[in-house]
């Protein structure tokens, strides 16, 4: 039985070999980017049995994504190939260490054509936790339907649902996003909102109100990500701040996915929510030490060493 | 008054920094690719007053294309920016020096949204030769309409129409392409088919029959491109083979566009068709000496030096 | 009618691909460098009709400069090619983020041979503002004469003269420079000194005395550049400090030229001196956000967005 | 049940970024090299269920090898990590397109410490074909013992044994190698010698005698590799030449491993020996089209397309 | 007569072309690394007559080391070539600007086979100062014997012995290292311990006690390196702190060797210990300004300029 | 006593990182180029005691040249540094594997200011062979005088004079060159003309007449280089053709210098002229196997191995 399953678009990511406006950049280097596969990779590195699926084009970029994710030890046996569409790609642009600009070539991509008929229901059922990001339902109507179909299967089979809202206003408007994401939230057991996302979805701007609201909506565990400060975890029974690790940040992209993976790893090991939060903070912090979306996620030994060296809130 | 005007999609072209399947290629270098701008650039290098227009996205890749074409001395004052679409891009893949594979990301590109309302009629009128490629009508319905609108303006204003069929079966089927391209051919004064194109459009497989047929259809000058062998030029009055230049080929992409530009340069200088053909052969040959689509097109002095060093059919 | 005209040497600039003493640097990347073309490029990006001329060698480096400046939309129709001299080049060396060392290969360069007979008087007359840098008269005797000839034409034709002293002690001694630069200053309508330049030229070390002195000498507008702090603008009528924008600086080369361009753009739009100063500060600040001499100059929309996001002295 | 199992050292391979003596080469690019993993990868690309194991150091190079082989779809679940030794590496040096020189750093490597106690006997039993290369027994005494233990398990369990002698005189002398390799040959069902290897092992210099001798020794199928010419296949029942494919060779390294994989793929599909040989020739030829050891191995569809386009001996 | 002689292993050092875990690094650049050759190079740059010897493999990496050290003006006439072993190499890994990880491939290297019979006794005798690092005796038994043989020759011939403990716990345990290093210390005239080394060797954790102890053991000058703070120098007669130079550090590797070289340069010029210490501080600081182990060591003029610009303790 | 002494300009050479017109080349890599230092380096690699001197600027490029030549084992103790001039540089441009174009930045370079007062007469006297190239007298009046002063010293001291005409029409006209080079020829013991040089200097176009003429002028040994064909050697006593080695040429630059070095190495070992010629042919051929001016010159062992593998005229 898989411990975790994720699904959704992973793209080939072209990183500029120099900073500055892209028209002045001569060369680009290839890697992969995708929140869903990030979470699966981070969990596989920590020793968990993780699966990820999506749809890629019948092209070199699709094969590259497949091999890269598989190379990390994630099960990709349900990845589909779509002969009628290309694999999505994106370009980053970096100016002066600010957040990178992103140029997408993903409209009509193979992944955006993921549909209910692509699902292997038995495979999905055989899972402890299904982690959903708010990116997948934004890709297309069929992707949205697919997400809800997976949620339905999960619900029917008592699978834990984990949800990271990941609001991407480049893909849909807030008006479109809000009802969909709230509906997913209602079905989730664990939710990982940020403050800004709480504001967009609920109109609430602090961790306490945000978590209260999500608990009311039926979530069992609400983990409000507070960036460098750490996180605030709330269940019916417990509510507490868990202080983050202080590190010299190199690149924050992928830190949120790492956080979720660190937390879920704790859940899979039946750690306390507090310990889950510390672990989430640690993986998130380690992700920022290294350039790249997923390169910085630690192996289990590395995570333990880091948590021994650095102090969380009360260790 | 402009001497030549071209229009149609120019894309940012990503060249692999190593040969082999793209999934194993780490880096890519940026340049531009587009048959229409190639012809304009080649003519500008030869000292002609050339204009090119298209539509690009409001993004760095669009600005890069604009600046590159403008940098070559082509008038880009009518290039449009489309805030609702991206600039098209493509990737090349080279295996063992065979013709490169191409991966397009151009569906729905800004250029494919070029439409009649984007035309500056007065600007178009003020031109001696309008050169059309068969790529533009393949991009979209609105592009097709735009091509015919331009042809109409040209016809009404006595502008010479030059046409290179450039059949791209990745963009449309032969069934879709044939009637459109034949209709353009009928309106053209000068046409630059290859043998293979003659076969696809007319079902004829040799230069003599192909040129005869196009002359019948109303073309005044038919220039059948014969690759390394040179070309066969036919008008009502004259018909002759013009032998090509023997060179050590490095990269043939862009050679056909260079050929057309070399020929049209001769037309603009009122050279004999024979001299036009020799000049076309020379620019085409020089284009193959250098890696890249348009990097090898010569300046006028370089062309003269090359034609002095190498012998055409009877010099 | 051109809005702005600049002239003077632009060189090919070789940037080390690694920091440290150049003898340990394996690779170098090519770009262009020149204060005069910088100002023209920055103004063209902001939407102005700008021209620049100089003299380059009949070589690939000269063609590269021509195409790059032309690609930015600057009119280069009066750029001369000198068959008897090479295009000047320079190498930068970076050690530990300090100001780069510079190694010039420009002695006897084509640009240093610019002379009065290279001038197209009618072209010069057809200009609103002529911007002069103190680099051009330092290059050679003939360059010096050319500068004064242009000043004479400007004076006779009521063209506004803008002047940035740009004292380069690698090119001439202060003893040589001072009388020449002061003579140019006397003829200028707008002058852009820094504090250090004021000290070298006038022996005065604060913005108030410096601007007073230049006003006395006949300048109508004195803009003392104060680096990150902004600028001090003085006319007969008004005198005020205009606070700079706080940004995370990446590379300060080219900031002064951007400042002048931003200010002159305001002049061309009849903005108040205060608004001109804010705009100069903004372009100067944006230039420092990006590595490279001219890569960071903004398009007009980008400038407006930046000025909206960041606060100038009283906005 | 796995279809094929291979085991033996895979190293990180550093390719020079330029040709010439290594002391003048500034940069090196990383990939992997290993005959055993090559065969497993080539078979996995063709759609077979392949496993490979070895021992790597507890270091980044070991993790890189694991992820790369796993990324290709090969089962690496039995790969061991040795905390007391490093992962072996090698450097290539290319001068003028001749065969590259190789510099090894593999003495005492983790893989050379592979020993009988590292074997998972149940895992080994669950295999149709075990492919052995003559490199593994050359690495160390414990590797030699491991090879014979695996052979013993295979024999006891009716697993087909495939053997490629791969004589490496940089690792042992011919005197050391000959008795060991002949002993393995005697236990093998399928053997893939080259002419030169036949000469070294048997003192015979033509394919007919070589195959006769190996058949006498008990091999059921002898496949003598003849390079570009193809191969000669001999069983008790059949003997025939199978002509190779003519291609423009880019890099021959890895072609022999590809040949073996192509042949074994046919065996797994119960193709005739003739068809197996054609398939071996095809994969070997395709491997040479691409720079790199294993980058050129085809996917099944690509193999079929290639065999359709190119003609083997009688197609 | 040589002024200084050093000996010991120098390796080819492969620097990652990107930061992050090495499995994600595509390219590596070659340079050299070795504490003993660093000291010799730094002294040669300062104008001294320095020699260095070691043993390298009969391979390109050995030739590269020889040419690089010789290129710096160090006498390498006694460098031996060992046909039976490889030149040692190492890889660096950089994560987030922390101290780099190091992966060695040096076990059994040519240098580790340096032995007493490789010594040219007359050459050694003809030296003013012999500088020993604690790395050489850690490499092998024969290296350890070689060190003591050299010490014996030095003692017999009145050559000044300089010693930098350089404890490398990757090469031997502290238990192995301590008695050896203390024995060398007892024979040394000048010793350069750090605080941490004092603690490991003597169990003392402050510069005063450490230097007192070494003076007792017979050292004439003890120079305790205090990193950015400078150093503490103690002789029988004088004891004082010498403040370091404040610089923006880029890379600290090689700074300690530079310090020793700067100090010894002063000794060779008969400067006071105070002046020697200032000079050591300066060379050490300059080394940190530049990426790379030895690239930052100054020429004499550069050192003088630096010491003029920056202030030492009382200048 | 030095075996060979050369002197003359060595420049930093910037190689384009891609082929094609330089305006399209993004990056350049640094190496050194100079016929005189090439000969010295080639001889040093073969084990001879060689010296080279020149003048470089007080800059990083000068230091780079010094260290590179010294690194090859050539004595550079008489290399002068000129604080008033820059080190010369050049750029290569490669189009389609033809001979590269060259762009010089050497006018007024430090080396061109080499003058009689830079000579160390005692150092020059202490030499067996002085090798002169026809490049040095082309650089400047003072260089010309220096060459003749050295010739005078050589003559007075019975030093063998070797001369390679190396006519460079980019540096002087044939009219200027001819009398100077003939005057040097008259003073030379060994001369290495090519056929084309014979034609330019003597108006003779075959090896027999050319050598006859030089023998008449007083040369003792005339070695006419015949490229791939080998050479023709003539003395009063012997005259013969010596066939060249057939190799796959990669880059011919530097082959002539290697030829001269190979021949002179034979002279220094008192080989027969025939053996000298074979050795010259071999070093010249090996130089062409490797990209770069001097990278391909062999070590003595490599030369012997090559001459054993390949056959010269009668071996």
From TrEMBL, chains A, B, C, D, E, F:
Residues 1-296 form the Carbohydrate kinase PfkB domain. GO terms for biological process: fructose metabolic process. Gene3D superfamilies: 3.40.1190.20. It comes from Clostridium intestinale URNW. Belongs to the carbohydrate kinase PfkB family. This is Ribokinase-like domain-containing protein. Pfam families: PfkB. It comes from the Bacteria.
């Amino acid at each position: 039985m898989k411990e975790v399953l994720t699904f959704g678009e992973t793209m080939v990511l072209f990183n500029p070999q120099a900073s500055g406006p892209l028209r002045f950049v001569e060369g680009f280097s290839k890697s992969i980017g995708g929140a869903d596969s990030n979470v699966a990779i981070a969990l596989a590195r920590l020793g968990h049995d993780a699966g990820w699926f999506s749809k890629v084009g019948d092209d070199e970029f699709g094969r590259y994504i497949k091999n890269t994710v598989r190379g990390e030890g994630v099960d990709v046996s349900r990845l589909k190939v779509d002969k009628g569409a290309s694999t999505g790609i994106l370009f980053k642009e970096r100016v002066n260490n600010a957040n990178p600009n992103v140029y997408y070539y993903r409209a009509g991509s193979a992944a955006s054509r993921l549909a209910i008929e692509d699902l292997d229901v038995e495979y999905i059922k055989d899972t402890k936790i299904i982690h959903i990001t708010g990116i997948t339902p934004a890709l297309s109507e069929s992707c949205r339907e697919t997400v809800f179909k997976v949620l339905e299967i999960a619900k029917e089979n008592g699978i834990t649902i984990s949800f990271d809202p990941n609001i991407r206003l480049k893909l849909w408007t807030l008006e479109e996003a809000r009802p969909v994401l709230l509906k997913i939230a209602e079905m989730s057991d664990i939710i990982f909102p940020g403050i800004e996302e709480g504001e967009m979805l609920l109109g609430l701007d602090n961790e306490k109100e945000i978590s209260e609201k999500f608990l009311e909506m039926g979530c069992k565990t609400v983990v409000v990500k507070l960036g460098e400060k750490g996180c605030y975890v709330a269940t019916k029974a417990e509510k507490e701040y868990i202080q983050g690790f202080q590190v010299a940040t190199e690149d924050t992209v992928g830190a949120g996915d790492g956080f979720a993976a660190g937390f879920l790893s704790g859940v899979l090991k039946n750690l306390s929510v507090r310990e889950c939060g510390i672990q989430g903070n640690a993986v998130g912090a380690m992700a920022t030490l290294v350039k790249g979306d997923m390169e910085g996620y630690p192996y289990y030994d590395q995570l333990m060493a880091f948590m021994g060296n650095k102090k969380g809130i009360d260790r």
